[in-house]
UniProtKB/TrEMBL annotation:
Entry protein name: HTH-type transcriptional regulator TtuA
Record flagged with keyword Transcription: yes
Gene Ontology MF terms in the entry: DNA-binding transcription factor activity; sequence-specific DNA binding
Gene Ontology process terms (BP): DNA-templated transcription
Listed InterPro entries: LysR-type_TF_proteobact-type, LysR_HTH_N, LysR_subst-bd, WH-like_DNA-bd_sf, WH_DNA-bd_sf
Presence of the UniProt keyword Transcription regulation in the record: yes
Keywords attached to this entry: DNA-binding, Transcription, Transcription regulation
Taxon lineage: Bacteria, Pseudomonadati, Pseudomonadota, Alphaproteobacteria, Hyphomicrobiales
Amino acid sequence: MPQENFNDLVAFVTVAREESFTRAAVKLGVSQSALSQTVRGLEERLGLRLLTRTTRRVSPTPAGERLLQTAGPRFDEIQTELLALSEMRDKPAGTVRITAGEHAAISVLAPALEKILPNYPDVNVEITVDYGLTDIVAERYDAGVRLGEQVAKDMIAVKIGPEMRMAVVGSKSYFQRNPWPETPQDLTAHNCIQIRMPTYGNIFPWEFEKDGHEVKVRVEGQLVFNNMGMRREAALRGLGLAYMPEDQVVAAVRRGDLIRVLEDWCEPFAGYHLYYPNRRHTSPAFAAVVDALRFRG
């Protein structure tokens, strides 16, 4: 294909990935009509329909899907190599995109970035809070954050936090009305503040371990949240028992605002890891962020 048509391929790949001419036009900085004409011209030269257009979405045809799978990764590699040229600069520069859960973003990413970003004014970091197990390659993130046991084997994993523990807590007013649970199974008789996460789809079971014996309890209760802060606030108000990362409630426990139970059933487990594809060519900006996040405890 003539070199001058590479822009047409970039236009097609962007529309196919965004599944929208409108979003693709914004991303490329062109008008929607110009983008539509560019893709139509490519289809005419190839003699193939590449995209199926409806009022609600745009999706690739079988021929378009084949071209997307072939051309898309090539352009990603070119873009990565162009970003790598920034190594020739005196200071790291560029944008690093990371997807992480709420707790990891608050407890690990934010403190580390607070230290590094003032030293690298040309480095930008975009963090998307997502509770699902995001495909960072498909979604074009530079890296993601997961607990150690959740990282796929084909990824490079960098430990960025210490081991973690969970905690079951309730307020004094709650325990004035209800007995303390002695075992995880006792939680089935309590009003538990439940967790719903996209990773599981359904209500998240509370996980416990003691002396190598693992227990998962499907609790019930009047409240369901997918937000950590709201779970803690509900527990403080005496609305039920909450299952929280230990660091998010330790201060309230010390103050006496919350009472911790089943502590001997909450054993440490692998903490957060930053992960990224092992074929990724790291830019100076990305390398600087990884180095800042690396756990050295």
